[in-house]
């Protein structure tokens, strides 16, 4: 995707990967609005990046930004002592952010299209617990025709994924493998 002139909204941009992605986007000519809960780190990242890429191109606060073309849901925490918060930030917020971005971007409802990136981790797929003798696998089937799939929402019915639903047998074959 051509990034020059694109507007990007990114969460968790004060440090780490988010800070790195913000700078990478700026270096390609995108304009970035980033948020974070770390006010001091956010302001200091904003000051450094504005000095390098221009005050109009990178902003750390809520502002009238016009259309958003790319949404990067990057904010995340890793602290299993606060499991509910981890699920809220790492999962629920990414889903909510994606839904908001989708509503804003979708062409069939007046948007101009876009790209949504959710930062996730391969450790969620196959956590390493070999020493405990426990194996984890995440199964990610396409849509399978079960009683669960009774939704009326046209957002789901309109997707290519929904049009190529799997039969139960195909899904269970995959499970056995
Ligand atoms: N570092 C890794 O090895 C790794 C690997 C796979 C996935 N990830 C994922 O990449 C993303 C970034 O990780 P990182 O290593 O740069 O971490 P980091 O801690 O350096 O940066 C994450 C940023 O998110 C911010 N944040 C946390 N909760 C927030 C909230 N509610 N609202 C706004 N900002 C919030 C933090 O303040 C921080 O600045 C996370 O989603 C993480 O789960 C990281």
TrEMBL record:
<dbReference type="InterPro" id="IPR002347">
    <property type="entry name" value="SDR_fam"/>
</dbReference>
<protein>
    <recommendedName>
        <fullName>15-hydroxyprostaglandin dehydrogenase [NAD(+)]</fullName>
        <ecNumber>1.1.1.141</ecNumber>
        <ecNumber>1.1.1.232</ecNumber>
    </recommendedName>
</protein>
<dbReference type="Pfam" id="PF00106">
    <property type="entry name" value="adh_short"/>
</dbReference>
<dbReference type="GO" id="GO:0016404">
    <property type="term" value="F:15-hydroxyprostaglandin dehydrogenase (NAD+) activity"/>
</dbReference>
<dbReference type="InterPro" id="IPR036291">
    <property type="entry name" value="NAD(P)-bd_dom_sf"/>
</dbReference>
<comment type="similarity">
    <text>Belongs to the short-chain dehydrogenases/reductases (SDR) family.</text>
</comment>
<keyword id="KW-0560">Oxidoreductase</keyword>
<comment type="function">
    <text>Catalyzes the NAD-dependent dehydrogenation (oxidation) of a broad array of hydroxylated polyunsaturated fatty acids (mainly eicosanoids and docosanoids, including prostaglandins, lipoxins and resolvins), yielding their corresponding keto (oxo) metabolites. Decreases the levels of the pro-proliferative prostaglandins such as prostaglandin E2 (whose activity is increased in cancer because of an increase in the expression of cyclooxygenase 2) and generates oxo-fatty acid products that can profoundly influence cell function by abrogating pro-inflammatory cytokine expression.</text>
</comment>
<dbReference type="GO" id="GO:0047034">
    <property type="term" value="F:15-hydroxyicosatetraenoate dehydrogenase activity"/>
</dbReference>
